[in-house]
Structures are given as C-alpha cells and as structure tokens.
Amino acid sequence: MGQVDACALSLTNVSRSYGHVRALHNLSFSVAEGRFFVLFGPSSVGKTTTLRTIAGLVAPDRGRVEIFGRDWTHEPIAGRGVSMVFQSFALYPHLTVYENLAYPLVEAGVGREEIGRRVRDTAAMLRLDKKVDRKPGTLSGGEQQRVALGRSLIRRPRILLLDEPLTNLDAKLRHEMRAELKRLHRQSGLTIVYATPDELEALSMGEEIAVLRDGGVVQTGTPDELYEAPRDLYVAGKIGSPSMNMIKGTLSRDGGVIESAIGPLPCMRKLSTAEAGEAAVVGIRPSDIRLATGGEGGVTASIAMLEPLGDVTVISMETGGQTLRLVLPEAAASGLQPGQRASIVFDPGKLHVFRASNGQAIT
Fold it and tell me: Where would I find the ABC transporter domain in this sequence (predicted)?
C-alpha cells in the first residue's frame, strides 16, 4: 500500500454572509499535504473570502476550518502556519528587495544571522539573488511578484495561499510565472492553495481543482476528471477550450438515442437514471467532432467561420439552427472555405448528457 498524504487543510460546511450578501455557502473541500490545489471560478464566487477564512482574516458564520487536524475556526491568525500573497504586490517602495524579504523576520524577532541566511536562500530560490540591493520600483512586474512571494515563503509557512497572483502581469510574464510557481512547488513541497478565474491557469497548474459557484464547491477533481466527467452543465461549460458544444434534445424510450434539432444522436452510455421523453442537453467537445470521410454518413452542416490557431484550426459550423465548433489539425482544415457544406461525425462514446431541468449529468 502506498503512503497516504496527511490532510493539510479541511473546510467543512463553511458559510459567511456580509449583510444580505452570501459570500460562502456550505463550502467544503480538503487538501492533502504537498498538493497544488486550485480554487477556480469567475469573480465574486467566493475565492478570496475562502482564502481569507483559511488565513484567519475572516471568521465564518458557520462551519469548521481545520489545519493539519486542528480546529482553527475561531483561533487567531498567528500560529496557523499559513501565509497569503494578495493580488496587489504590496511591497514597501522605500525598502530594498533584501529589506522587503527580511521584514517579516525582523518583525518576528529572528536573529540577524538567521535573517541573512534565509534571505539569501529565498532570493536564490526565486532567482532574485542579483537584485537584493534594488528598490521595487526598478524591478519588472514579474520580479516584484517574486519578491511578494518571497516575503511569504521566508516565513516558512506550511500552507501558502495565493489570491490571483498573476492577474496584474502581461500574458508572456504570466506564462513564465506559471512555470516558475510550478518549479517552486516541486522544489519546496509546500501545500499551495491558489485562487484564479483563469481556466488555463487552473488546468495547467492545479493537481486538484475545486470549481466554485455561488460560494460553494460544485465539483472537485483532477484536470482530467473535470474534463472527462463534468458533474453538471456549469462545470462542463467552464472546463475545456473551446468550450463544449451544447445541443438541446429529448431522450428516446430506450435511452440509447437522443432526438435533437440536428437529428438523432446515438449514445453509447446506458442512461439508467433517465426517463423516456425527458428534456436533455447533449454536450460534445469540439475535439470529439470530425469531418466525415468517404462514404461515411454524418450530419450535413455549412462552414460559418474558420479560426486558424497555428497547429490547429477551430471551425464553426451551422446545422439545424445550431452552431457547433470543432477543432481540426491545420492540415485537415486547409482548403476549407466559409459557406462550404461538409458532413460531420460525432464520437458516440464521448457524448455527455445532462438533465435540462437542473443541469445535472445523467449517469
């Protein structure tokens, strides 16, 4: 038997309101020690309030916060072993990088030699060792972000909380910092809880992702689990780019076929919990649709738009009043023109079926 990682953090039915505004509602998830865990969802779903609750900056109205098995719900901030990096870097402009990094240790009364050693180690890990004498104003955005990170890391927290830390950086820097954070995570073995509204960030960095909606967790899983088996329409629409095609339909008597505006869609999965004639929504990923090859029957559609993206092309096709997007290798898309008609084929094993009434996946 492999060793099971200890639970670093666990939130159980945490709720928090500000007046009439419900920020968190029965929010529950747990994070194994050493895991890179992502809180993912658009703005105002409760990501920041969740991080602030873990850090002890916000006390929940209800529920429980445990850190390494101990109840910290209503305990003070100090002693939690948690450090948080905010969206704004909040560096002291009049202090050097060295002094900014040393500041938390000076405040904590750490000895001078120990401070020097930890600043050198942290600066080296963040590749800032040549910049320690500079002021923040002379650094690039990415370097300032690394100083803000370093100020949290130097405290040697057991859990690092990151609140949309890359939002203020340009696209190229964001890409570099994503790689930098993953390297840092591998090197340090820290437990990281990372909040982001950015799907690419969530999928490329998270070992496990909690998808949030209205202050609660809709589904938790690895990037592959969320992509392959979304629990409802909300998760299906949030994970995967280009996003999943959604087709309205009704279930046939045997549950093996879904009648839709673009024709009958055969479903390989036996939908045991479905009712005949029930309204459904069929989801199909753009990568699970292809052009029919010689003599193959398919759905006839007309090409509305081509979006070349280098090695692949996204094609929007119209049929039965629906627009469907598919992703083709660049070579397969060359020669296609808007207005052209073509036949498309779905992979029947890759259809996702959801109840129209509540958006839940039909299993």
Answer: 9-239
Measured CA to CA, the distance from residue 143 to residue 139 in angstroms comes to 6
Same domain membership, residue 253 and residue 205: no
Contact partners, residue 43, CB within 8 Å, separation at least 6: 197
Q: How many domains does the chain have?
A: 2
What is the rounded CA–CA span in Å between residue 8 and residue 68?
5
Last residue of a domain, one of 182, 200, 230: 230
* Per-residue pLDDT reduced to its tens digit, 85-105: 887 778 999 999 999 999 999
Average pLDDT over residues 289-304: 88
Tokens 């850190």 belong to which residue? 67
Domain boundary among 177, 205, 230: 230
Cα distance between residue 229 and residue 1, in whole Å = 27
- Beta-ladder partners of 203: none
Judge if 210 and 249 occupy the same domain. Answer: no
Q: Which of 290, 295, 296 is nearest to 336 (CA)?
A: 290
Q: What is the pLDDT of residues 36-63, one digit of tens each?
A: 999 999 989 999 999 999 999 999 999 9
CA dist 63 and 86 (Å) reads 24
Of 176-185, 216-225, 298-307, 309-318, the one with minimum mean pLDDT is 176-185
* Strand runs labelled E in the chain: 7-18, 21-32, 36-40, 62-67, 70-71, 82-85, 159-163, 191-196, 208-213, 216-221, 245-251, 257-260, 263-266, 279-284, 289-291, 299-308, 312-319, 322-329, 341-346, 352-355
Structural domain containing residue 283: 242-355
Percent of the chain with pLDDT over 90: 64
The whole-number pLDDT of residue 162 equals: 94
